[in-house]
Amino acid sequence: MSNTRELPLLDTADDAVTACCPPLTERPFTAQEAEVAARMFKALGDPVRLRLFSAVASHEGGEACVCDISDVGVSQPTVSFHLKKLKDAGLLTSERRGTWVYYRVEPSVLAAMGKLLTIAPAAA
Question: Which strand ranges, in their side-by-side order, compose the sheet holding 63-65?
Answer without folding.
Answer: 63-65, 100-105, 92-97
